[in-house]
Amino acid sequence: MKPHLVSTKLGVLTLFLSCLASCAETPPPVATSNARLSAVQIDRVGRRIWQNECGGTVAGLTSWNVGEDFASLGIGHFIWYPQGQSGPFEESFPPLAAFLAARGHGVPGWMRGSCPWPTKPAFEADKNGARQQELRALLGRTVREQTEFIMERMERALPKMLAAAPAGKRAWVNLAFGSLKATPEGVFCLIDYVNFKGEGTSPKERYQGQGWGLLQVLQEVGESPSSHIAWNVQFAEAAKRVLSRRVVNAPPERKEQRWLAGWHNRCDGYRRSL
């Protein structure tokens, strides 16, 4: 065989093998179609979040849970720390207050600073006081806006999660997020869970080095994706595994086992149609 023909064939073979290797390393395609929620579905999302967090009651819009050092407010139980307090969980009520004010709702000055109740006993003693009544009234008439606030947080989560994810996991996180966004049920999974347990990007939100936010659930889904099982169903099971791991890793004094059954029940709700 002539030398130039051998060289040409070797070049073609090299290019072919290079293409094969490249294809093997290429991550699966990401779903690019986003399900658009109707106004009715957005309201349904808000009611389900309200039911999940507050039992769907007006009284539940202002709560302070046992064993926690912050108030939990609104349909999403947005966290509000007292003056000088902080913790491992992201504070979300002050951004909500700013969001509502920007939408033209009257948000009094006392709602824009630190939580005025320093402890749970002080909060409970003022349950029927003027400030909590004013707060519940504002939260009761802004359910749609609170839902939109949570939805905006979900939309902002992906770049943060991709930046925080290990390099080898980013393609799967992207795939899972995009695939979930392709159906209304998957969108609800993302909206509810990011409000429920956060993005999972903060190093402070870890027990024994392991997080429990949306990022960790999407990584868990990516471990064994199946085309035969709907993404929202896979998400529900992955979320339950992540939350079970959180409880195992939690400091004993937090007694988080008491919450696990309720958390799992909430995750089972992700299987339902929207």
Count every beta strand, where a strand is a DSSP E run of 2 or more residues: 3
Structural domain count: 1
Main sheet properties: 3 strands, antiparallel
Query: How far is it from the N-terminal to the C-terminal residue, by CA?
Result: 67 Å
With strands numbered from the N-terminus, the spatial order across the biggest sheet is 1-2-3
Outline type: globular
Strand content: under 5%
DSSP helix fraction: 55-70%
Average per-residue pLDDT, rounded, comes to 87
Question: Structural class from helices and strands?
Answer: mainly alpha
Number of helical elements: 11
Can you put this structure into words, describing what you see?
This protein has 274 residues and is an all-alpha fold. It has one domain. Helix content is 55%, strand content 3%. The chain has eleven helices and three strands, in the order H-H-E-E-E-H-H-H-H-H-H-H-H-H. Strands 1-2-3 form a three-stranded antiparallel β-sheet. Strand 2 and strand 3 (78-80) form a beta hairpin. Helix 9 (214-221) packs across helix 10 (231-249) and helix 10 (231-249) packs antiparallel against helix 11 (257-268). It is globular and about 55 Å long.
Protein traits:
disordered N terminus, 11 helices, 274 residues, three-stranded antiparallel beta sheet
What would you say about this model in short?
The chain is an all-alpha fold and 274 residues long. The protein is built from eleven helices and three strands, in the order ααβββααααααααα. Helix content is 55%, strand content 3%.
